[in-house]
């Protein structure tokens, strides 16, 4: 038990501590922090952004603003009067011609189109071409519509910026960007047909993008989205715009594409400079024969696997779109002279195209 004397000693010690403690505290002169005025300068975003990113952004935005209003969602109608599938399309003439995929239409003869501003338009099928997976629609109501221009896919280069616009999974006006990964690809479609002269890109495509435009920085349509490789990232394909231009012309005139066939699988390849110089060739690419159909027109005419075809008749062949044009309706069942490079020699062979059967 604490005695009164001890309590008095304790309280005296506390009082002394209170007197001494303040003298031991050193005062601090506090100066409020004032941030540099430069932090509050109202600088536009485009000025502080890096030049590379700004140029990239301008390219993508320009392409979207030019082509975007012409992109539509495509809802084909089945016999029961209900939408049968979902895809995209692009209006290519103000009076309402629209390109989409053949596989999007699934044999339907009409579709509903939903525009960027939400309008619903009725469209009839003009014709389709499973060999290139392209179909042409025509809006039934007379009106003036925003349209996009088909560019020259032959001018594309690997690594070039491209922008895809469409309605993946039903989300209209979705934009993805990437580069041209490769040119002149061939891909076998769902029905076993071989779709040729494809552009390979890593611009993301998803179900619903089919039939939508792939465009360059200038706002020109250079491809029509057609396929993706499921389970693989960055492997997407589009039909070259030069092929689309040819197919659209045929569908407008005839409602179908009746063309010749040489019975072979081929792809576009560059011609080595040394070889071109030694043979006196001025073109940079040709059509390489990957395989031949037994007893087909090319095989019967003496074409061999591994040959490089550089001309058909008077036409130089620098790619598969050139070959498609060379094998038009007028060539069926008529002899045609083709020039091929075999090894280090030029050969002239005679082939007789037959009508290509639809898949």
What does this structure look like?
The chain is built from eight helices and 21 strands. A hairpin with a 5-residue loop joins strand 4 and strand 5. The radius of gyration is 33 Å and the shape is globular. It folds into two domains: 198 residues, Thrombin, subunit H (Beta Barrel); 96 residues, Roll (Pdz3 Domain), CATH 2.30.42.10. By secondary structure, it is an alpha+beta fold.
Q: What is the count of distinct domains?
A: 2
The rough form would be described as globular
* Individual helix count: 8
Mean pLDDT over all positions = 84
Kindly provide the name of the CATH class of the largest domain.
Mainly Beta
In total, how many beta strands?
Answer: 21
**Which structural class do the helices and strands define?**
alpha+beta
Termini gap: 109 Å
Radius of gyration based on Cα positions: 33 Å
Order of helices and strands: HHHEEEHEEEEEEEEEEHEEHEHEEHEEE
The percent range for strand residues is: 25-35%
CATH architectural type of the largest domain: Beta Barrel
Main pleated-sheet profile: 6 strands, antiparallel, barrel
Q: Can you give the helix content as a percent range?
A: 10-25%
Offer a concise description of the structure:
This protein has 359 residues and is α+β, with helices and mostly antiparallel strands. It has helices at 4-24, 45-48, 51-67, 102-105, 241-254, 273-279, 297-300, 320-326; strands spanning 71-76, 87-91, 97-100, 110-114, 120-129, 134-139, 149-150, 161-166, 174-188, 194-201, 213-215, 220-228, 236-240, 260-261, 264-270, 285-292, 308-312, 315-316, 336-342, 345-351, 354-355.
């Amino acid at each position: 038990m604490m005695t009164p004397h001890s309590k008095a000693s304790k309280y005296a010690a506390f009082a002394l501590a209170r007197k001494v403690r303040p003298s031991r505290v050193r005062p601090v002169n506090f100066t409020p922090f004032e941030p540099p005025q430069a932090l509050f300068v109202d600088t536009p975003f485009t000025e502080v952004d890096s030049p590379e990113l700004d140029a990239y952004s301008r390219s993508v935005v320009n392409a979207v603003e030019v082509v975007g209003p012409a992109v539509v969602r495509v809802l084909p109608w089945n016999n029961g009067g209900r939408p049968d599938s979902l895809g995209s399309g692009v209006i290519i003439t103000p009076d309402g011609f629209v390109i989409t995929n053949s596989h999007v239409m699934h044999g339907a003869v009409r579709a509903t189109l939903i525009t960027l501003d939400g309008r619903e338009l009725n469209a009839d099928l003009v014709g389709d071409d499973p060999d290139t997976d392209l179909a042409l629609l025509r809006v039934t109501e007379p009106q003036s519509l925003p349209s996009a221009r088909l560019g020259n896919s032959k001018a594309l280069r690997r690594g070039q910026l491209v922008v895809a616009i469409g309605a993946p999974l039903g989300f209209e006006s979705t934009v993805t960007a990437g580069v041209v990964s490769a040119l002149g690809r061939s891909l076998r479609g769902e029905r076993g047909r071989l779709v040729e002269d494809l552009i390979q890109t890593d611009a993301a495509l998803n179900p619903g993008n089919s039939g939508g435009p792939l465009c360059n920085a200038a706002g020109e349509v250079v491809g029509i989205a057609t396929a993706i490789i499921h389970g693989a990232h960055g492997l997407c394909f589009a039909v070259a715009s030069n092929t689309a231009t040819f197919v659209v012309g045929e569908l407008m005139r005839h409602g179908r594409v009746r063309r010749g066939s040489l019975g072979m699988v081929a792809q576009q390849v560059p011609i080595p400079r040394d070889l071109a110089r030694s043979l006196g060739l001025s073109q940079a690419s040709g059509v390489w024969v990957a395989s031949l159909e037994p007893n087909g027109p090319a095989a019967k005419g003496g074409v061999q696997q591994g040959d490089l075809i550089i001309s058909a008749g008077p036409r130089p062949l620098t790619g598969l779109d050139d070959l498609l044009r060379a094998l038009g309706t007028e060539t069926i069942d008529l002899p045609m002279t083709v020039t091929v490079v075999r090894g280090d020699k030029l050969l002239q062979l005679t082939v007789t195209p037959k009508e290509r059967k639809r898949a």
